[in-house]
Amino acid sequence: MTDSLSISTDALTKQYGSTTAVNDLNLAIPSGAIYGFLGPNGAGKTTTIRMLTTLITPTSGTAHIVGESITDRQAVVSHIGYLPEEPPLYDELTAREQLEYHGGLRDMNPSEIEERIDSLLDRFDLTTDADNRISTYSKGMKQKTGLIQALMHQPNVVILDEPTSGLDPRAARTVRETIAELAASDTTVFLSTHILPVVEELATEVGILYEGELVAEGSPDALKERMETGEEGTLEDVFLDVTTDEAHDERTTEPERTGQPE
Ligand SMILES: Nc1ncnc2c1ncn2[C@@H]1O[C@H](COP(=O)(O)OP(=O)(O)OP(=O)(O)O)[C@@H](O)[C@H]1O
């Protein structure tokens, strides 16, 4: 069952002491989806991503990436490309060296490494700076290098945390186009961002997390319809509607009400 899904979680939960950062999360994301993962600050998005990328262990529950359990770090890591909020880069290297090093870690062959680096540097307008040290880069240039690093080994699942953060409008557009192309070639994109218009434009499915729980899920259109935001409604309206304590209280009492006659 989980084999047909790119990302699946079953009652995934993470507690830090008395704080439940992620509570009983169930996701079923098919291959080629662009899944917009939303939630206010502290909702549990990064914690979820860190579990999916095997960086932290769940307190309970399970998760699979392309059918591989997150308990099998090596298998999972071979399927994913991950861009965290702060890209993991060595400041003393140049972007080209960093990417060559990463390609080696990913067991890519040298000619494939050079080919992918050249084409991605070109796509993200980084060719002229590729042989300068990362320590001299702007935030946006580091972000682009991190993104190339996440994509260069052509993973099945790409997990992006605020991928357009710090990018100028042209670079941000390139990132959006790249995300759409990845999905068109059946790569699954798990996209966490606070920039809701990007999600509205790209996502096939959206999940909204609030206080560690998934409080709404569906296509952007379906969510807007369900929330009766009206024709002018946006994903932001849906987001603001479901991420309040009042909405949360209503939801938790809802099961008792649904069985009652009107
Ligand atoms: N290492 C940790 N130790 C203790 N508590 C933590 C730790 N990491 C996260 N938390 C707590 O878990 C909850 C979820 O945090 P998380 O970073 O996953 O949220 P987020 O949705 O990614 O937020 P943001 O949008 O601000 O990045 C918060 O209450 C946070 O304080």
DSSP helix fraction: 40-55%
Strand count, sense and barrel status of the largest sheet are: 6 strands, mixed
The strand order across the widest sheet is: 6-7-8-3-9-10
Report the CATH topology name: Rossmann fold
**Which small-molecule ligands are present, each listed once?**
adenosine-5'-triphosphate
Q: Can you name the CATH architecture?
A: 3-Layer(aba) Sandwich
- Number of strand elements: 10
Q: Specify the CATH class.
A: Alpha Beta
Shape: globular
Strand residues, percent: 15-25%
Order of helices and strands: EEEHEEHEHHHEHEHEEHHH
What is the chains' assembly state? single chain
Distance between the termini: 38 Å
Average residue-wise pLDDT: 89
What ranges have pLDDT less than 50 throughout 5 or more consecutive residues? 255-262
Annotated CATH homologous superfamily: P-loop containing nucleotide triphosphate hydrolases
Number of helices: 10
GO molecular function: ATP binding; ATP hydrolysis activity
Keywords: ATP-binding, Nucleotide-binding, Transport
Domain ABC transporter: 7-236
Pfam families: ABC_tran
